[in-house]
């Protein structure tokens, strides 16, 4: 089961028309939980530094922002909206969700926002 099948409803147990507790939703949740653990571990390492430099402070801000995005992705998953672009409502491509499981938008819509 891939994240894309959870997003696009291409498998029998995907989110499309199925409860958020299905197998596809569990797979997406696993990806998000792994991402969250990784970010928290890295944040813990940065916070353990005595006198962090500017780069460490910037990285800390990025990690904290990503953790907020991960929490928002959990909410979208619970609501059955995970994997749909927030702008165009088209499915976010599988590859994008595999790399950035908390992505809110497809690549095209994200590029237009920059």
Automatic annotation (TrEMBL):
InterPro entries per record: Znf_DskA_TraR
Keywords linked to the UniProt accession: Metal-binding, Zinc, Zinc-finger
Domain Zinc finger DksA/TraR C4-type, residue spans: 80-113
Keyword Ligase among UniProt keywords: no
Coiled coil: none
Keyword field contains Zinc-finger: yes
Protein name: TraR/DksA family transcriptional regulator
UniProt-annotated stretches for the region Disordered: 1-26
ZnF (dksA C4-type) intervals: 85-109
């Amino acid at each position: 089961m891939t994240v894309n099948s959870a997003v696009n409803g291409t498998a029998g147990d995907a989110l499309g028309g199925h409860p958020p507790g299905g197998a596809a939703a569990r797979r997406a949740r696993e990806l998000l939980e792994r991402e969250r653990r990784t970010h928290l571990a890295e944040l813990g390492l940065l916070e353990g530094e005595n006198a962090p430099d500017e780069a460490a402070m910037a990285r800390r801000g990025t990690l904290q922002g990503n953790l907020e995005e991960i929490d928002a992705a959990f909410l979208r998953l619970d609501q059955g909206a995970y994997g749909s672009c927030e702008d165009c409502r088209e499915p976010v491509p599988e590859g994008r969700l595999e790399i950035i499981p908390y992505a809110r938008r497809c690549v095209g819509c994200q590029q237009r926002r920059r």
